[in-house]
Specification:
The complex is a heterotrimer of chains A (253), B (314) and C (314). Chain B has 13 helices and no strands. Chain B is mainly alpha-helical and 314 residues long. In chain C, helix 2 runs antiparallel to helix 9, helix 3 packs antiparallel against helix 4 and helix 3 crosses helix 6. The mean pLDDT of chain C is 82. Classes of the chains: A alpha/beta (253), B mainly alpha (314), C mainly alpha (314). Chains in contact: A-B, B-C.
Chain lengths: 253, 314, 314
């Protein structure tokens, strides 16, 4: 369970998040939506314990993320930040193995190798395992980074715009995998993901959290919370949720 | 395994050459060959290996810390800061022990390098070439302060010695401080994973549970110690920390747990090689290893700068 | 508004110049006035050259942090001095006609700069930062070579090189000034003629090319002018790195315009004003001889750090 209690975050004196209270339980995919500059990335960083709030409390599975030790927090929450540039010349296997770092702290054991192999298999990276990151396409590289965060084996996986540089095929590929992996019975893993494409959110998300100007607009099950009226208000332009071929899509109204 | 066998072979050949090349013929007549070996040749060989390995390792740490492959301590003002500390301590306490002077230099080097890191946070990352330029200007400012201070206190010749790495003055009893580098290298190897994580960027490293600031500070302290030990005992050698890590990274990738020893090896071998070349070019006179490396290193750096695909950040 | 401010800048320079010439004027009036006029002319020429060159350079590099001083000009200058002293000996160097020395220095600097720009621009002017870094690294290389050559000098020759390597306005040669003056005026006029094209080039290659600008040619011509301006002023008084940064930054701050036909004269006036007023304060009021360049460099360095830190974080 992620629990935020009147959390406010400031950067250089100006407020980024104001009085955000949230509470949602394990399971499924939670989409974080909102206009540019709404504070979505900051919210993810705050949940992961990487940004300290000026006020309020952040609890993940009963752990106070503000006070937790770094390795403790990294075993509860994995965050994949937007990475603008990868300079590291690591192989995919090396990278994914670094996802196990909170568990082995530099001394990988047999269990870590097993988990790395699992993560590579889960994201279909077996054939690329010994290639270097700088030799991969953008889509493959993003998949490797998601696999790294997955190998961290935390109950919560936070992804900040993982689809931003991907074409529809790779975007769909990653979302399909995450969707399958977070179904009940597939394991106790939950994903919180920042999405810009509202139709992707409508298609995959179980829950919606909407932010605007650093404040919480709404939070709840996607089928209830994601309405045309809410989206129009959120983005300041007229939007509608329509049902096309049995699926919800978001269109300009 | 094969790589390591070759590495050891090259190292052995270079050490052998370094022991044999010199004005005094080891197997010659009057002087005791063993004594020349023990007092001069071996210390000189160790000094070159240690200085080269240390500077290369320091280069890796700085490159990972700012996620930019085109920088090294010598391009971000570390040696200049160390020289500033050396000047100040020479002026305040001329008779201080070498270890005291070195410690003061390490302190100022740490402050100077941290200053650069602070600047680096304000430089946009999409221009990998901008950061070394800023570092050069920053180092230039500190260097100008050093030169001005030396100029007004008549210590310019000292600065000249610190600026150009040279091993001809290395004798038994006058280089032992450099063994500190070996200790620092060991510590770095223990922290190799953490240094690799630094290279993944602050967000990635922190979300994997790394105490980012602490790691950065420890890394910088080790860099400051290495650079000031080298500056104090043999003088700074530009480009070692830049060229060597880049070659290893292109060849074997960035997983430092595997490659850090290779970086140290290549750094030691290239500097020793340059020292041997410097002894041979104008035999029996000597050219400082730092100058030989500056010429070769500048060439290699220009190649890296222009051959590198832009996408991979230099 | 820009025009009025430009006028005010001109008046300020005129006032400072009058003060510089007439303050505490004693007999023999004609002789002292002549000396002061020479010095004033040198200060104005150098200030104008450096201010103009920096604005041109920053527009082409699309970066307000850089100055042409970092592209290894100072290193090349020191290298030439060292080579002249090494080749001719201390006495021969002193006996060298000032005109010949000036000619050799200017021509070498311009030729080297044009060669660098020409070779690198053949690949297109889309990566100017990379080119600048190349120049800087060549500068480091030259400094290494100069340091090597300086080891071959005897102490008195070393002192001559040291003296020549620092910028001074103390002893400006009238013949050199008589040559430098017209070159600078012509270059400045050429820069003004380019102003319109520079306005467009400032938008960046991607924007300027589709608008019909021959971007690469403008870059080449502009950099040629920069080389000429910096070379002449360096040969006249010695290397100055950060004055240009001060002048260009102040010009951009005081004249809120993107038009180069206002910015260029503005930076020129400001550069001259800084030097003349600085020299007036230090020489006439405080009675200090050599500190002006040190202070200008120090302030420029501080400004550079401030500019980096004031940029928003990425």
């Amino acid at each position: 369970m992620i629990q935020l209690d009147s959390v406010s975050v400031e950067k250089n004196g100006s407020p980024i998040l104001t009085d955000v209270s949230l509470c949602f339980g394990q399971g499924g995919i939670t989409a974080l939506i909102g206009p540019n500059g709404a504070g979505k990335s900051t919210l993810l960083h705050t949940i992961a314990g990487l940004t300290s709030p000026v006020r309020g409390q952040v609890m993940v599975e009963g752990l106070d993320m503000v006070r937790a030790r770094p390795e403790q927090r990294a075993r509860h929450v994995a965050l994949l930040a937007q990475n603008e540039s990868v300079t590291a010349r690591l192989t995919v296997r090396d990278l994914v193995e670094f996802g196990r770092w909170p568990h082995h702290r530099g001394r990988p054991r047999e269990i870590d190798r097993v988990k790395v192999a699992e993560a590579l298999g889960t994201f279909d990276l077996d054939g690329l395992a010994d290639r270097r990151l700088d030799a991969l396409s953008g889509g493959q590289r993003q998949r490797a980074f998601v696999a790294m965060a997955w190998a961290q084996e935390t109950s919560w996986l936070l992804l900040d715009e993982p689809l931003s540089a991907l074409d529809p095929r790779h975007a769909r590929d990653i979302m399909d995998r995450l969707h399958a992996l977070t179904r009940p019975g597939a394991g106790q893993r939950s994903v919180v993901i920042v999405l810009h494409d509202l139709s992707v959110a409508a298609r995959y998300a179980d829950r919606i959290v909407a932010l605007k100007d650093g404040r919480l607009v709404t939070s709840g099950p996607r089928v209830l919370a994601m309405t045309g009226a809410m989206l129009s208000d959120l983005f300041g332009t007229r939007l509608a949720v329509e049902r096309v071929a049995g699926r919800d899509v978001v269109l300009p109204a | 395994m094969k790589t390591w066998a070759i590495a050891l072979l090259v190292l052995a050949l270079l050490v052998g050459a370094s022991c044999l090349v010199g004005v005094v013929d080891l197997f010659g007549t009057s002087l005791d060959g063993l004594m020349v070996l023990a007092v001069s040749r071996l210390p000189r060989t160790f000094a070159a290996l240690l200085a080269g390995a240390g500077l290369a390792l320091a280069g890796v740490v700085v490159q990972m810390s700012v996620q930019n492959r085109l920088v090294e301590p010598g391009l971000v003002g570390t040696p200049e800061s160390a020289m500033l500390g050396l000047l100040l301590v020479t002026l305040a306490a001329p008779g201080a022990a070498l270890i005291v002077k070195m410690s003061v230099a390490a302190g100022t080097a740490l402050i100077g390098t941290s200053g650069f890191l602070w600047l680096a946070r304000h430089v946009p990352r999409r221009d990998p070439v901008l950061l070394p330029l800023i570092g050069l200007i920053y180092g230039g400012i500190i260097g100008a302060a050093v030169l001005w201070l030396a100029w007004t206190t008549d210590l310019v010749q000292y600065v000249g010695v610190w600026q150009s790495g040279e091993f001809s003055g290395v004798l038994q009893g006058r280089y032992e401080l450099l063994w500190i580098v070996a200790g620092v290298a060991g510590l770095l190897w223990l922290a190799a994973d953490r240094i690799t994580l630094l290279g993944l960027g602050e967000d990635a490293a922190r979300s994997l549970g790394l105490d980012y600031r602490q790691t950065l500070l420890i890394g910088l302290i080790l860099v400051a110690v290495i650079v000031s030990v080298v500056v104090v005992s043999v003088g700074s050698i530009p480009f070692v920390g830049l060229v060597v890590p880049n070659i290893v990274s292109r060849w074997r990738g960035d997983n430092l747990r595997r490659n850090l020893p290779l970086v140290a090896w290549l750094g030691g071998c290239t500097v020793l090689g340059c020292d041997i070349i410097g002894r041979l070019i104008r035999y029996p006179y000597e050219i400082p290893a730092g100058t030989v490396f500056a010429v070769l290193g500048a060439g290699l750096f220009l190649w890296l700068l222009h051959a590198a695909p832009r996408r991979a950040n230099g | 508004m820009a025009d009025r401010r430009l006028l005010i800048l001109g008046l300020v320079l005129a006032a400072v110049s009058a003060l510089f010439l007439l303050w505490n004027l004693r007999a023999p009036v004609g002789f002292i006035l002549g000396l002061r006029l020479t010095k004033l002319a040198a200060l104005c020429a150098v200030g104008t050259a450096i201010g103009t060159a920096t604005v041109l350079f920053q527009t082409i590099a699309a970066n307000r942090l850089l100055t042409p001083g970092i592209v290894g000009f100072d290193a090349l200058f020191v290298f030439i001095q060292t080579m002249l002293v090494l080749g001719l000996g201390g006495l021969g160097y002193a006996a060298l006609p000032s005109l010949a020395q000036f000619g050799v220095e200017t021509l070498t600097l311009v030729a080297a700069a044009m060669a660098l720009f020409g070779v690198l621009l053949r690949r297109g002017a889309d990566d100017i930062l990379r080119m600048i870094l190349t120049g800087v690294i060549l500068g480091v290389l030259l400094r290494g070579l100069a340091g090597l050559a300086q080891r071959l000098l005897d102490p008195s020759e070393f002192a001559i090189v040291q003296q020549a390597s620092f910028a001074t306005f103390g002893a400006v040669d009238r013949t050199q000034l008589a040559i430098a003056g017209p070159i600078l005026i012509l270059s400045f006029a050429a820069a003004l003629r380019l102003a319109r094209l520079l306005d467009l080039a400032a938008l960046g290659r991607a924007t300027a090319l589709p608008l019909g600008l021959d971007f690469d040619r403008v870059v080449f011509v502009t950099l040629g002018l920069v080389a000429l301006l910096v070379a002449v002023s360096t040969a006249l008084v010695g290397p100055i790195t950060f004055l240009g940064l001060l002048a260009a930054s102040l010009a951009h701050a005081i004249l809120p315009t993107w038009r180069h036909d206002r910015l260029l004269p503005g930076a020129a006036l400001i550069g001259a004003t800084i030097l003349v007023s600085g020299q007036f304060v230090f020489e006439r009021l405080l009675g200090l001889q050599s500190t002006l360049t040190v202070i200008v460099e120090f302030l420029g360095g501080l400004l550079f750090l401030l500019l980096v830190l004031r940029r928003p974080r990425p």
